[in-house]
Fold:
Amino acid sequence: MASSSGNDDDLTIPRAAINKMIKETLPNVRVANDARELVVNCCTEFIHLISSEANEICNKSEKKTISPEHVIQALESLGFGSYISEVKDVLQECKTVALKRRKASSRLENLGIPEEELLRQQQELFAQVSEAMLVLMRLE
Structure:
């Protein structure tokens, strides 16, 4: 199914990802290799179709970046409107996870202590532990 160009693999979903999705969705079903390959090709074609349509919608609205709204409009215009509510749910989940990650990464920044000071404190603690270890070793 892949041509000799070598770039076709760059344009498909990794087979490991498809295998994992199949196993999670259908844990008690065996799927033939050619059926797996067909699923990979269908998924790849679906993504190309949606992304091409979203790109056209994006260009028509004179934007340079495809947004989730462009993808949702593409689904609607291509007749996949029944997917939209689930897509919006997944989008909300992604936003929630991203927000949690941002909050977690900004905790250090919110301490108000410069990174250099934190490193100095860390080195001081390491030195104290080293001294304590030396004292313990002498006691033995």
